[in-house]
Structures are given as C-alpha cells and as structure tokens.
Amino acid sequence: MFEKGAKSGGDLESAQAKNKALEEAGAIVPTSFEGLEPAIKIAFQKLVEDGVILPTQEIVPPSVPEDLSSAIKSGKVRAPTHIVSTICDDRGEEPTYAGVAMSTIIEKDFGVGDVISLLWFKRSLPRYCTKFIEMCILLCADHGPCVSGAHNTIVTSRAGKDLVSCLVSGLLTIGPRFGGAIDDAARYFKDANDRKLSPYEFVESMKGKGIRVPGIGHRIKSRDNRDKRVELLQQYARSHFPSVKYMEYAVIVETYTLSKASNLVLNVDGCIGSLFLDLLASCAMFSQQEIDEIIEIGYLNGLFVLARSIGLIGHTFDQRRLKQPLYRHPWEDVLYSKYV
Amino acid sequence: MFEKGAKSGGDLESAQAKNKALEEAGAIVPTSFEGLEPAIKIAFQKLVEDGVILPTQEIVPPSVPEDLSSAIKSGKVRAPTHIVSTICDDRGEEPTYAGVAMSTIIEKDFGVGDVISLLWFKRSLPRYCTKFIEMCILLCADHGPCVSGAHNTIVTSRAGKDLVSCLVSGLLTIGPRFGGAIDDAARYFKDANDRKLSPYEFVESMKGKGIRVPGIGHRIKSRDNRDKRVELLQQYARSHFPSVKYMEYAVIVETYTLSKASNLVLNVDGCIGSLFLDLLASCAMFSQQEIDEIIEIGYLNGLFVLARSIGLIGHTFDQRRLKQPLYRHPWEDVLYSKYV
Amino acid sequence: MFEKGAKSGGDLESAQAKNKALEEAGAIVPTSFEGLEPAIKIAFQKLVEDGVILPTQEIVPPSVPEDLSSAIKSGKVRAPTHIVSTICDDRGEEPTYAGVAMSTIIEKDFGVGDVISLLWFKRSLPRYCTKFIEMCILLCADHGPCVSGAHNTIVTSRAGKDLVSCLVSGLLTIGPRFGGAIDDAARYFKDANDRKLSPYEFVESMKGKGIRVPGIGHRIKSRDNRDKRVELLQQYARSHFPSVKYMEYAVIVETYTLSKASNLVLNVDGCIGSLFLDLLASCAMFSQQEIDEIIEIGYLNGLFVLARSIGLIGHTFDQRRLKQPLYRHPWEDVLYSKYV
Amino acid sequence: MFEKGAKSGGDLESAQAKNKALEEAGAIVPTSFEGLEPAIKIAFQKLVEDGVILPTQEIVPPSVPEDLSSAIKSGKVRAPTHIVSTICDDRGEEPTYAGVAMSTIIEKDFGVGDVISLLWFKRSLPRYCTKFIEMCILLCADHGPCVSGAHNTIVTSRAGKDLVSCLVSGLLTIGPRFGGAIDDAARYFKDANDRKLSPYEFVESMKGKGIRVPGIGHRIKSRDNRDKRVELLQQYARSHFPSVKYMEYAVIVETYTLSKASNLVLNVDGCIGSLFLDLLASCAMFSQQEIDEIIEIGYLNGLFVLARSIGLIGHTFDQRRLKQPLYRHPWEDVLYSKYV
C-alpha cells in the first residue's frame, strides 16, 4: 500500500515518486507509519459504502490466559498437588535428607547407615543402630556366583548389557525363596515372643503348619562349630544395645532346636532378624505401631536388596573385566519333557 | 446476645421474657436475625466512643483462589503441558489407536499386526504388511530354554516371583548379543544396497572390519539343506509384496557367501531383516527420512522383544506348572579364579 | 646326543662322521630313532651304577580324565539335569512349539493366538479360541499415556534409555491396581458361578467384604449407552462359542447391579474375564483341575502383559520420534510434607 | 522255593518239615541262602534238557553309568566349567570377599566402602579411599521426588507393587541423561589432563563439539556462593589424599569457566569425578591400564546406582507409609497431538 522510506536520498526520492504514482492510480497512500491505521479505516469505510464488503458484528477478542505459575504466585489459582513426599527436599540450595542438609552430613562425619536412617526412618538413629545397619550390609553384600541373583546378573552381563540392566535382572529374583529369610525370621520371632510362646510351643506349632523355622539351621555349622559371624554380631549387640530381648528369645529357641538336631543352630539370617527387632525396640524412637508398620512394609528386605546390590554390581564388573562371551545354558543340563 | 425464637408458644413467651430482662440489664438485644448486623454495629461504635476499643484499618479479605481445572476451562489460565503423546487417545468414550476407535478395530476384524501398525507406525498399513509382521512374531516367539532370556526367566520363576518380574528378568538380556541380529541385518543390508555395493565389496569390506555379515550363516542348514522357514517367507513375499529388491540383494549376497562355504546361507534373521526393508519401501506410505528413522530407532528390535515375550511368559507358566524349586547353579560348573 | 640323518648324501656322510666323533668321545650314540629309548635306558643305568643319580620310586602317571560329553555318550557317566522344560524344543533343525515345527506354523497360516495357544497351553486350541485371544490382545494393547505403565515408559524413554529398559520400567507397574481387573473378574465370576450364588448373594457378599465387584462399572457408559466393544465381544461369543454360561452369569449379575445404579454396567474387563472362562470350559480340552490351575497361575494377566507391551513399545518409539528431553516432575505438583 | 529258617526251635522244626515235604513232591529245595544260586542253575538246566524252555543268547548287561560328581572326584571325567567368577567364594564355611572371610570383615571393623573395595576392585584399598567412596554414596543417595528415578519408583509403589519392582522401575531411568554426569566428568577431565590440554584448549574444544563441560555449572551456586559440599570434599581430599592433581586440574578449568560466567562453578558431580581419578592414581595400587579399564567399564556409574538405590528404597517405603493410591497422570498435563 505504501513504499517504505529508505536510507539514501536517492531512494527517498524514488519512494516519493512511487507513492505519488500510486495515489494518482487511486490507491490510498499514507505518508508515515502513524498514517497506516487511519488509512486502513478510510479504505474499509469506502469499501463498505461502495457495497464491496458487508460489515459483521465486532468480536471481543479473548483475553490472553495467564501463565499458571504466575497465577499461582498471585494467589488467583489453587493447583492441587498429585504427589506427596516426605523424605528429601531438593528445592533449596542443597538437598536435605529428613531435614538434614547434605553438607551437614559430610561435616558431622555421617556414615552410610546414618543416611539410611534419615531416608528410610526419617530420623537420626543413634550410632550403635546405624553401625549395626552397616554390619548387616557387609554380611549380606554377596554370596557367590551360584545363587539366583548373581547368576542372572552374570548371564545378563555376558549378553553385553549395561550395568543397570545387569543389576536389575539379578535383583528381580529376590523374593520369597531368595533373600527372604531375614524378614521371615524377624516376623516369626516377633510374633512368637510378643505372644509369649515358649520355644516348644513356637517350634512345634511351626512344624504343625509345615513351616521350617526361618533363621534356624545351617549346612555346615553346628553346636560344636558355631558360626563366627553370629558370635561377633551377638557380642556387638550385648556390648552396645540397651536390651537384646528378641535375640535372647532366638537363643533359647536355638537351645530347643539343638536338642533335636546338632545343625539346627541360629544362623546369620536369624541373628540379624532378631537383633533388628531389638534395634527398633531398644532405641525408644518408635511407637509400637511404627515398629509393626516397619516389619510389615519389609524394611529388612530393603536392607538385603541394598546390600546385595553391591555384590551384583561387583559381578557385573567382574564378567566385563573377564570379557566373558554370551552365556548359553548347556542342552545336556535340560530335561526336555513332553509328558508333564 | 439474644435468645433465639423457639417452636412452642410457651418457649416463645419465655424467650421474650429473657430478652426483656437482658435489655433491662443494658444489653443490646436485636429482635430478629436481620437485626443482628445493625446491633453489632451499634455495639462496636459504642465501644469505640467509650474508648474501650481502638478502631484499626480495614483489611481487604484475600479472594479465595480459583480451582485450577475451572480456571483452565474458563480460559483464565494457561497451564503448560509437560508431556506430548500421539499414538493413543483415551479421553473419549473409548480409546482410539492412531485415531481408530477400538470398536472399529473389532468390527473390521483387525489382527495383532494391524494394531501394531496403528500404535507403532501411526497408520493403517495394508494387510500384506501386517500379515508379514505377524509372521515375524510367530517365528521369533521362542527358541528353547537355553538362550539367555528364557534361562533368566526360568531362574526367576523358580525363585517364586510374579509373572512380570520373570518376564522382565529375561527381557533384560536382549541386546547386542542376544536378539540383535535381525536389526543388524536390516541396517547392513540397507546401507550396502543403498550405496550400491556389489556383494563382493559388501562382504569383503565387512571382513576387513572384522564383522561377521549378520543374517548369513547357520549351524546346520546349508546350500543343499535350505531352511524351510526362509523359503516360506520368500515365497510369501514374492507373491504379496509389490517389490522385493532388498530380499533380492540379500539373495545375491548369499550366492557370493555360498561360494566361500556351504553353510553361509541366508538365515531367518537375514531374511526377516531384508524383507522388512522391502515392506517399508514397497508400501509407499513412508518417506525416505521416515524409513531411516524407523531403522535407526530400532523397530525391528521392538518386534523381537514383543515376539519373545510370548515365549518368556510361556516359560514362566511352564516352570510354575512344573512346581520347580529355587535354582542354584552347580558349584562344579564354576571356575573360581583369583588370578584374573 | 646324536646327529639326525639329513637329506643329501653329503649331509649323511657328515652326520656319520659327527656320530663317530661323539662315540669316540664317550657319548652313547643311537644310530636310529628306534635306538633312542634303549640308549636312554643304558645311559640312565650307567649313571645309577656310577652313583651320579639316585633312583627314586616309580610314580604311576595319573590317567587323563575323559571329556564329559564323550563320557555321557559312551554311557559311562550319568549327569543329572538341573532344568526341566516342556514348551519348546530347539535342538533339531528348527525349533518346535509344543511339538509343532515353526515351518508348519507358517504353512498352516497360524496366527499370533495359535502360537500363544501352543506355548502357553501346550495344545492347539480351535480357531474360535485363538481368534478370541487375539481380540483380547487388540482391546488391551493401549490405554493412553496417563496410566501408570505408559507414564513410566515415557519417563524412561525421555531419559534416553534403550527400548527394553523403557518397556520394562512400564511393565513393572502392572499388578493388583493396574491391569489386574480382568483376572479378578474371572476369579470372582468363576467362584460365584461354580458355587451357584444368585446375583444378589454374590454382589451383596462382595459388598459385605468391602470389595467392589471387578468387571462391573464404567465412568461414562450406562444402561442406555452400552459399551460397543462389550456388545461386539458378546456377539462374537454367541455365534462362535459352544456355550457361554459364564458370560450369561455375568449378564444377570449386571442386570442386578443396574437396578442399583445406571452406570454399573458390565465393562470390557468383566466381559473378557467371563468369556475367557467360557473359552476354557467350552472347548473340552482342559480338565477341571487344569482350568483351576490356569486361573490360579494367572494366564489372563499374561494376556494383559503381552497386549500392553505393544502399547508400551509404541510409547517408547513415540517419545523417541518426538525427541522429547529428560522429564522432571514439576515441583509445584508435589506436597513436600514433614509431618506424616 | 524254600522255607526260611526261623527264630524259635519250634519254627525251625516246622520249616524243615515243610522243606522235606516240598522235596518229596519233586521241588528243588536249597537248604541255605548260599544254596539258592546253584539250585536256580540246576532247575534251569533241567528245564532246558526237558525241552520246556529254549536257551537264548546271553546279553551282557549294560554297566550302570557312574554319577557325575563321583566321576569328577575320582578323576575319571573332566567336566568343563561354563562360568568364571573371581570376587566371592561361597564354598567354604563362610563366604570370602576377594579372599577375606566375612567374620574378618566384622572383626576388623570394615565399613561399607571397604566391602565395595573388595567386591569391585578385588583389593583392600586404604581407609582414606574407602572413606571417600562412602562420602560419594552419602552425597548421591537422593535428590528429591521429582527426578526421573524417584518419580518412576513413586508411581510403581503407588501401583501397589513389591519393593524390588519399585526400586527397579526407578533404576532403569539411570543412564546418559540422568545420573551420568559424574562418569562423564571423570572421563573428560582424565582425557584432557592426560593429553595436557590447557583449560582454554579443553573448554573451547568441547564448545566446538557442542558438548557442555560435564561437572561445571550450577543452577544457584556461583563464584560468590560456593557449594559447601564441594568445599568439604576438596578439604577432605587435600588433607588425606597423597596427591590431588586431577582435582587441581578441575579447579583451574573452573577458574577459566568462571571468567566466562559466574555460575560456571565446579559442581558436586565434577568434584567427585575428578577426585575419584585422584583416588585411583594416588593409592599406587592400580596400573595405568587398570585405571583406564575402571573408567571405561563405568565404576563411577556403579557408585551412583548403588547410592541412589538408598533413596529409591526410601521413596518406596515413604509412599507405602503414606498409603498413596494408584497414580494417574492428569490429562490436562498432556498435549495429545496427531500432527507429529
């Protein structure tokens, strides 16, 4: 509709000439940017008058919606939250675990057990507890390449997969038959002790239900060849725990089972399971209801899962270092049966 | 401040009596609910006049924030979306796959291949394509209990875990060394054919890089004992595909490799890989760029993963039916080495 | 000790000359290879006689152990197998599914449902059954990006992970609250029908236990706006199944629940669940005990898992195609609470 | 054929009477157990002579195959092992980690870092190293509920799944975009320092390749508001590490980047990454080749995965404690697009 003014004098002159020519040809030519709007109005009205176009009703343009975050800030809108979370807040300058800043954790010389205490139990347990948690992790970190978890991790590592896939493939075998003994020991010992069952009543009622007492029995160890790890844990607990009533209960159960067979000793699983109950009960930081919830949710299984992850990651690295090829299970080891 | 009017005449009289008594004692007593507000005002002004209370500045009460969903509906607020999704819309009366309603899928007698076509490729491929996709699924559904995937699934099932954990533990072994041959065959055949390499150039350049040609070679099959599955697939493609140029390329590559050794036949992986390229190229529904993207993203791996899931789920059920106990790999099969 | 005979005459003469010289110098010189052993014996006895060396007791060399595979073949050793498997045999020229060769599967134009039938049920179900299995897969293949499974898959895909990790991350959400309704519907309908409970007794006893009847109820659908998919499935079953007694039971339960509220219709989950019972009962290929085992093991969950894998793989590809960046859940959507 | 001698005299007499009667009736009656075999022979020959039975050729009975484990023990058979493993031996009275018995680990008061040292590095690193490993675990244990890993774990926990499934669903998001910064920082700093690149050369060459320098940059922290955690780690390393050359290199890189923008500080990832290099180089327990292998295999990723497992397990417990229902992503947050 109009020729924009240009930089050089020559160009300007040329523009003026063009505008003039357009005007003479009947065009409406504004001479400045400000003249554009009135020129459009004049052109529009002329077209309406000439009957070229029919005016329609004015539409009120929709107001531009406000951005959500500014609307929330100004208090105009209340957006519901879909997630609740309580263990770690990452919104500030540095994350906090149950309210404790990460730099405080370094400054105070916290250990792995202390961080587990904060993120799982939402409180800072005394050091004798967090040290015991670390001991459990050490003892459960690995149990050789033949158990289900390590085996699957090794197979996946040999398939050339990434670390997480290898770890995960092994973790998925942890459950009722592999890794579940500590949890079970804690559950049964707690129930039996709280119901004040005598060792005889406890063991025989388990037998009646066809359930082996979890935490009792060892392939090699026996009355005269005790498991040193059990002795060390018991020794630690006796010198550091305010009370060890659940462990004592496990010990008198062991006395009874040993009277039946010499290898029915309290094993590491049973020792950890019963001592964890003592940890929860003795520190006086949990209500009875909270302890029940912890046992029901399965925190001890969490300890086993975390601990064994160390071993499974180790097996992944080991196979990679050894440059092992794709594993194929030998045909000779499989009974191909059609009749089952 | 006033005694509320009560139901019975006797109560009303009693209320009037009480009000009268209060008034006489100096209380301001409204005689109706409507009189409450002016009475409060009178009481307030009297207390101010008497200097009992000091009036403070009026506070404008904060407006109650609006609920997010109504604010979005009314167009006041624009909430940014954090997720984009294009394959399935579940907001209406029934979900749609790439725009096709589920009941239409049943009515039109769609097969599994058609649904894969909609959810993966976002278009309805012709039936000769979706039928070929189904054939690939049949052929890759299982390969016995000894391969990595089935083995891990069997171990996890024997650990007493749920179906998803068993399936997943096996799936995680799928990758470069297990299940990757179809994808690799498609990639290398496409690259070689598109670059117009002669079979000699292709095979020898692979050899030069130390890479075995994927899709070529079989443990048992040979020039004089062809794989029937390959023959059936080729036969299907020749009668149903508009063109089979990639398959033809694979066949002349095979002719060259057979001249080197009699077992270097085109195997099922190579056959599926090359025919899938023909499927994409021949149906004229994908741009060249889209085909490249499909191969790069790894759709063929998706086919293998989906297909093999049928077998892995089958192995899970099989072990459960057989009531197999926890698997432990035999010690004798492990070389415990310290010196590596 | 001796100079080996050489090729040319000149060399031979030269060797003889050297041997002669050695003999004269006191060496024991054998004149042929056969003479080597006696020469060693003479030399040894001479050294013993001279007291240069002291003879020690003869050691019987250990016999070289036989290789395991040849020992098994010759019947000398019986190696126990550690794994039993029944669904697929991969030892021959081509794998067989429940005894059916893969090329037969292609030749006979089997579908995905037929292969599932072989690998899961170990028998070739009639086509009306395998077609119904395929219909279930179509209907359960996806349900949009907002459900737990698809959401986790999308998040993992946006973290740049491989296909299997994305799929698996989503599959792991399938369980009691997500995807479990079909299985539950089958279990409860079977139990109620087999115990000959009236719809009133069934629904009210569920209510008494505080359990919603699975398979009944819809967000949108109602008495006057039936779900077309349910109608199509019922229509298919009525024309193809020999009997539909479980479906009929579900329908009379629906009649009762509709008398309580108009949206308590039989939904797709309930329809599939009850019809799957009819499939098992009507084909006369399973004993009552086998049907109970199938329901207990959770084959219907397997169908859902397999079907939804199609959607989860589709979502993985979708996000990759869209080149979506790392997902981070918005802070504003989280209630950070310390007091729980 | 004969009546066995019995205990009492009366019985014996009675047996003799019976035998006599049998003999008289024509039966061949041995008078002792030893007489049984010749009696059978006589009876057989008599029947042959009488033509009652026809003698057939003697069959050599197949020798009963020996059991594999006894055949291996006796050295007759050599079974190849299919798995090699070096980190943990579980065959003795108690498992050993890289040769160290578990009870020794308790007795010597080892920490989590020491066990990681044994199972991952196959050697007992000095305490300043294992303490540093523990510090890394503390700092990486969690980063709130909004990051990919925690988010997926929360969603899976709210689907009512078991602990392992929840943990795993979150772990699977760890990879190039989430959790990979420490590893990347170590790789790039090592390469740049070993190639003696000046900070200018290093940073600008990264910029040229379009790669952000990993380990540099923070959302909030800046030149005048340093990250306390970085300061604490550096302080620890300066007082305990024999040398900190990689950290010093990272610091001069930071000096250069700070000259470009004030928030381009060395962050926690970069600090851990460079200090881990110093750990490996300074303890003089690894060859150069071993260090390269450790970085290539991705041990630092292992540290992150293990550490973050603590947080993911914590989030699982948290959601369970809060009894959160099934998560469904809000429709409003999704852009359903058809045109991509």
What would you note in describing this structure?
The structure is a homotetramer of 340-residue chains. Chain A is mainly alpha-helical. Chain A has 2 domains: 86-124, no CATH class; 127-329, no CATH class. Chain A contains 15 helices and 7 strands. The first copy, chain A, has helices spanning 9-24, 36-49, 68-73, 102-107, 112-121, 127-140, 148-158, 163-171, 181-194, 199-208, 228-240, 245-258, 268-282, 288-297, 299-321; strands at 66-67, 77-78, 83-85, 88-89, 96-97, 100-101, 334-336. In chain A, strand 4 (88-89) and strand 5 (96-97) form a beta hairpin. In chain A, helix 5 packs across helix 6 (127-140), helix 6 (127-140) runs antiparallel to helix 13 and helix 8 packs across helix 15 (299-321). Chain A starts with 8 loop residues before the first helix and ends with a strand. Chains in contact: A-B, A-C, A-D, B-C, B-D, C-D. The interface between B and C is large, with 82 and 82 residues.
